[in-house]
Amino acid sequence: MATYTPGLKVVTQVRHRVRRVLPIAGEVLVKAGDHVNAEQVVAETYMPGDVTPLNLSNILSISATEVKDCLLKSEGERVEPGEVLARTKGIFGLFKNDYRTKVGGILESVSAVTGQVILRGKPISVQVRAYLTGTVIEVVPREGVVVEADVSLIQGIFGVGGEAYGPIAVVCRDPSERLDAGQITVEHKGKIVIGGGRMTGEAIHQAVKVGAAAIVSGGIDDQDLKEILGYDLGVAVTGSERIGVTLIVTEGFGEIAMAERTFRLLTSRNGAAAAVSGATQIRAGVLRPEIAIPIEHTGSASARDEATIDSTLKIGANVRIIRDPHFGVIGKVSGLPHELTTLESGSKARVLEVAVDGSQKIVVPRANVELIET
């Protein structure tokens, strides 16, 4: 049996871990064993503020060596916007010239060579949230934490936008129904809207207008995406876009329905609080967008750990076809012929049989499928 790297995850219940760390050293605000909420700040640091250079030698028409004597503030002191920062000596105490800053900040340095003054703005707070409602299982000193929770986990093919939080709101009746603007109302403010087939550009604009947290649907038109972003995305890492809503596509581009299994799982968790991330990385170190819906234990069986999920291609394994003409179809492996099979192109390859809806069987090259963790 071949071992495959699992692809798309559509898991009803799994133990999920996330590593939440700061970009630079800071302060961790929780400890191991603490229960945290998804939007709780678990670590915080401060980035240096913006720098504003002021060439006072040119501004006040004085020599660089005179600048320091003209300053009304010392290095390390704060100056407010509109406050007089420097005043020339004038002639016989007359005709003095003042300079009022347009920006505030800390007087960081003064150069007697160039006559330039550096103002440093207020430090910028950088906070990391827990993302999952769960338990802190590890603290990385001065960096962050690892949070663990039992969740329903759905991964998408592509996404844009950062992390978002809110209750699941299913608005389509079946996985092939197109998501249009009329299905999104003011009631969806702060919610994660679940569609079916393609999400339209109008639906995305409406979601931004009403303040929805995210949209999850089967497909999207690449022209709609280009219009929303204002540019062609290309192959890149996404997740930092600021378009007013996070978008997750579960299947692909164009008129494509959400997989039945994915739609059923999301529908079963309708109303539950969830965390989503649109971050996607296509190349090495694949990163998929995801919807993580914490599970409140009420005597149910414990979730499997992600590391224990079987990743072997075998009879009964759940797979998703990732090439046309059956792109997006999900089924179970029903046959694994050992011998090479001649394809329509004339080349030979190992194939497998995929049973769809329990009856229809599709024969595809093994390279054209990815395992689905369920």
Q: So, CATH architecture of the largest domain?
A: 3-Layer(bba) Sandwich
Helix content: under 10%
Number of domains: 3
- Rg of Cα set: 28 Å
**Fraction in beta strands:** 35-45%
What structural class do you assign from the helix and strand content?
Answer: mainly beta
CATH superfamily grouping of the largest domain = Phosphohistidine domain
General shape? elongated
What is the count of DSSP helices, taking H or I runs of 4+ residues? 5
What is the CATH class designation of the largest domain? Alpha Beta
> What's the overall average pLDDT, rounded?
88
How is the main sheet built?
A: 13 strands, mixed
How far is it from the N-terminal to the C-terminal residue, by CA?
Answer: 19 Å
Task: Please tally the β strands and state the result.
Answer: 31
Uncertain spans: 1-5
Please, could you describe this protein's structure?
This protein is mainly beta. It is built from 5 helices and 31 strands. The strands form 7 sheets. Strands 1, 3, 12, 13, 14, 15, 16, 17, 18, 20, 21, 23 and 24 form a 13-stranded mixed β-sheet that branches. Strands 30-29-26-25-31 form a 5-stranded antiparallel β-sheet, with no helix packed on it. It has a 4-stranded antiparallel β-sheet with strand order 5-10-9-6. It starts with 9 loop residues before the first strand and ends with a strand.
